Amino acid sequence: MEIASRNKKARIAGILYLLLVISGFTYLVYIPSELIDLKNATKTIENIRSSEHLFRLGIVTAICSSLIFMLLPLALYNLLKNVNKVSAKFMVLFVIISVPISFVNILNKFSVLTLINKSEYRQKIGQTEFQTQVMLYLENYNNGIQISQIFWGLWLLPFGYLVYKSGFLPKILGVLLVAGCFGYLITFLGGFLYSDFNKTIISDILGFPAPIGEIGICLWLLIMGTNKLNFRKKLQ
Fold first, then answer.
1. pLDDT for residue 48
2. pLDDT tens across 145-177, in order?
3. What gap in Å lies between CA 166 and CA 187, rounded to an integer?
4. Helix (H) or strand (E) holding 104
5. How many whole angstroms separate alpha carbon 64 and alpha carbon 70?
6. Phi and psi based region of residue 227 (left: phi greater than 0; alpha: psi -120 to 50; beta: remaining)
7. Are 202 and 191 in contact (CB under 8 A)?
8. How far apart are CA 109 and CA 105, in angstroms?
């Protein structure tokens, strides 16, 4: 009965994690790749105007992703709190801190829509200043994403530790999650301190563990639930 209940909690967390992965990919990767070119203001503004619905969809998806990200650690806390309650609380705390940052950051996208849709602003400030303002808001949004990534990394440290120590989830996924934490943090610091850091092979290597670990644990929770074999061995 206890194993069945644990599996149910695991699959609820897995569903939330899958939704987070899908929504995150949509608003962080797919939609920006279709619309945004930070080196070409004219093209970017034209793309947003011609595909405004897609741009708005990105905003809605970002909001939904933040809400899912707020619920996910609560589901994981329910699953992993008996492993180590202090670590489980830190896992939740790091995510809860990041969510308001994400919501405030989304305001930059609303500002872009305001500038593009209200012609009076463009008439008052001129075309050049108009383009500059739009691109500045998009740059500020990207800067906000960088700040959020600090916490996207930090929460993986207690989460990975809990996975590793649980006894009913694969230890290798815990190792990858912890490595993903340091990958996020080093990538942020490297990119902030050295402008070409993100073009180096070190950046590519550091970015490898987090997606593997997160997609891995997502699929494991969703499909496998908890590792019953290891759990029974632990009881014995």
1. 96
2. 999 999 999 999 999 999 999 989 999 999 999
3. 28
4. helix 85-117
5. 10
6. beta
7. no
8. 8
CA dist., res. 80 & res. 82, Å (int): 5
What is the identity of the amino acid at 103?
F
Which pTM does this prediction carry?
0.89
- Interval 104-134: pLDDT, tens: 999 999 999 999 988 777 777 878 898 999 9
159: tokens are 């989460």
Q: Angle 193-199-200 (CA atoms, 0-180°, nearest 5)?
A: 85
Distance (Å, whole) CA 56 – CA 31:
10
Residue 48 one-letter amino acid? I
SS3 label, residue 195: coil
Average pLDDT for 32-41: 94
Domain residue limits, the chain: 2-156+218-231
Q: Are 177 and 200 in contact (CB under 8 A)?
A: no
Pick from 117, 143, 142: which is nearest to 130 by CA?
117
- Residue ranges in 118-126 assigned as alpha helix (H): 119-125
Cα–Cα distance for residue pair 153/191, rounded to 1 Å? 15
What DSSP character marks residue 155? Answer: T
Q: Flag whether pLDDT at 103 surpasses 60.
A: yes
Burial of 153 (0-12, 13-18, 19+ CB in 10 A): buried
